[in-house]
Design goal:
Layout (H helix, E strand, L loop, with lengths): L7 H12 L9 E4 L5 E6 L5 E9 L11 H11 L5 H6 L1 H21 L9 H25 L2 H4 L3 E7 L3 E9 L3 H13 L6 H13 L7 H10 L13 H5 L3 H11 L5 E7 L3 H10 L30 E6 L5 E8 L7 H12 L5 H9 L3 E10 L6 E9 L5 H17 L4 H18 L3 H15 L17 H11 L5 E7 L9 H17 L3 H15 L4 H15 L2
Parallel strand pairs: 2-6, 7-11
Antiparallel strand pairs: 1-2, 3-5, 3-6, 4-5, 8-10, 8-11, 9-10
Helix pairs in contact: 1-16, 2-8, 4-5, 13-16, 13-18, 14-15, 15-18, 19-20, 19-21
Length: 560
């Protein structure tokens, strides 16, 4: 969950408007249908509309042997548009032809990458065959791209969401058409059509080719290192080869595993009467058949003292062509842990407003960071996850300088008492945002569904005023001292290799002088490069005048 830095004037205006409201939980009617489908309903009479949200528990972290991207392909194949029920059967032959052509094309491209490959005339013919099959599928699905049965029911504001923990589909409907949508969606889930799969695969592959994966590659690197051996370690991996290897049959198997009543959650908020609607739900979603959901792996709490971790944490340096950023990730417990509210408040203290410590200290006052964001619960909240600070250095400032500044702010928060005004501000921000969640049907449905999928209890979304005692400064500081510690920390630095791309003229001359000095003492080129990179990293932390003075000293040593 991204922690937004609301402008102070906006927050004060919103808080003033919310102050007159009583901070309380939404009134949620909780039902479980006869087949195990869970339903949450919030009655808002008189609005004339209903927000419907369908959640399937088990997202990118629950795709089994398939790569995480299979969850994205399944969600968008199911929910982007709704094809006519007969269309999937009519397209069966074309889908098989497309699948065979795509697999042959994939294998031929792999052969082309071998060092001993020879040009094959089959490549062009395979590309033509696949393009023709894809064109046929696009033509047959074109009518539903413009208009489908959800549109006919007055559905608007459609949204498909894919996370590590769940797949979700949301839509706004006229209240009178809610029963029709329930019938339509229940029939669709009972006999799902995946005829959109080739089109959704092409969309996703094109996004990867454009450098726009669903999850940033830098975050994927951090997760694989920080959460190695856990459910979320590979939940953000998007590799083209892995996605190309997914077949329609495999996606169908995943659909059958996911589309079982025990995994389904339906959230409805708006102009409805729960007592009247319950029989309709039983006649529609209550008739979906399927086996029990597979048991989730047992939760393992994080205990750094018993893990094979470095007391100083982990650090990874990644050479990139253009991206420059530093990402900190600290392992924290899942969302329903007792320390959850303190961690949320800690995030607000650090980056929840323009006056928050990291924003004010590193972006506004010192100008070290061009951009800084903080996310809690990365990439999900059902298991141990990450508390993430992601920062880009401002022009003229080095990654190492920004890294040290962030670590300094964390240490200051851990050692110095928090001002009472910071604590109350953080608490008020959390309460205000949770009140605002209840003002918009789509936001409320999303919060209820996500919270239930991640913690098993929708109330977790509203813990800021769920009856627990108010947070104290010592609670927030204790969370910082417990979780934002080196043994739980992984740092990833992304930037151009300084040996290939010096950041300015001074650094180029420093590198030239250092290279001469190092080569005089070391014959191993690998060891020499390692020392040079570390030396440049350290020199980047100096001020411009100190760097120039160092350059003069080094050039004096190498002068003939």
């Amino acid at each position: 969950m991204r922690v937004p830095a609301l402008p102070a004037f906006m927050f004060l205006a919103v808080a003033a408007g919310c102050a007159a409201q009583t901070a309380r939980l939404p009134e949620v009617v909780d039902r479980t249908l006869g087949n195990g489908v869970k339903v949450l309903m919030v009655e808002r009479p008189g609005t004339g509309a209903v927000r419907a949200g369908l959640f399937l528990m088990g997202g990118r972290a629950a795709t089994g042997a398939l790569p995480p991207g299979a969850a994205d392909l399944l969600a968008y194949s199911l929910f982007r548009r709704l094809p006519a029920p007969s269309l999937g059967r009519d397209l069966e032959v074309t889908l098989r032809q497309e699948a065979a052509a795509f697999e042959d094309l994939r294998l031929e491209r792999l052969r082309q990458r071998r060092p001993d490959h020879t040009a094959s005339p089959e490549l062009t013919s395979l590309q033509t065959m696949h393009a023709e099959a894809l064109k046929t599928i696009q033509a047959r699905l074109a009518p539903t791209e413009a208009w489908d049965e959800v549109d006919a029911l007055g559905g608007t504001r459609r949204a498909v969401d894919v996370t590590a923990d769940y797949l979700a589909f949301g839509v706004d409907l006229p209240a009178a058409n809610l029963p029709g949508w329930l019938r339509l969606e229940a029939e669709h889930l009972a006999a799902p059509s995946l005829c959109r799969f080739p089109l959704e695969r092409e969309r996703l592959l094109q996004a990867l080719d454009a450098g726009e994966p669903p999850v940033a590659a830098s975050l994927s690197v951090l997760l694989s290192m920080a959460l190695a051996g856990r459910a979320y370690a590979q939940a953000s991996e998007f590799q083209r080869g892995d996605l190309e290897a997914i077949t329609l049959a495999q996606l169908g198997d995943l659909a059958r595993a996911q589309l079982v009543p025990a995994r389904m959650l339906l959230v409805l908020a708006g102009d409805l009467e729960a007592a009247t609607l319950t029989p309709v739900l039983e006649r529609t979603f209550g008739r979906i058949k399927g086996g029990p959901a597979p048991e989730a792996p047992p939760y393992r709490d994080d205990n750094p003292s018993s893990a094979l971790e470095s007391p100083a944490g982990r650090k990874l340096q990644v050479s990139t062509s253009g991206e420059t950023r530093v990402i900190f990730g600290w392992r924290v417990p899942r969302s329903n842990h007792p320390d959850g509210p303190a961690l949320q408040a800690l995030a607000q203290v650090l980056a929840g407003s323009p006056s928050a410590r990291l924003i004010q200290g590193l972006v506004t006052t010192r100008g070290l960071a061009r951009k800084l964001t903080l996310d809690v619960g990365v990439p999900g909240e059902r298991d141990v996850n990450l508390f993430v600070i992601n920062a880009e250095p401002a022009p003229g400032h080095a990654l190492g300088e920004l890294e040290q500044a962030i670590e300094g702010e964390i240490l200051r928060l851990q050692r110095e008492p928090l001002a009472e005004v910071e604590v109350r501000w953080a608490q008020n921000q959390l309460e205000t945002r949770q009140i605002l969640l209840q003002e918009d049907g789509a936001a409320l449905v999303q919060a209820l569904g996500a919270s239930h999928c991640q913690s098993g209890d929708w109330r977790t979304a509203f813990r800021a005023f769920s009856g627990e005692r108010a947070l104290r400064a010592t609670d927030i500081q204790a969370a910082a001292r417990t979780y934002l510690v080196p043994a739980r920390m992984t740092v990833a630095l992304f930037g151009p290799d300084p040996l290939l791309q010096p950041m300015d003229r001074i650094e180029a001359r420093l590198l030239q002088a250092l290279t001469v000095l190092v080569q005089r003492r070391l014959e191993d080129p690998v060891a020499a490069q390692r020392i040079l990179r570390e030396a440049i990293r350290q020199l980047r932390m100096l001020s411009p005048s100190e760097r120039e003075q160092t350059l003069k000293l080094l050039e004096a040593q190498v002068a003939p």
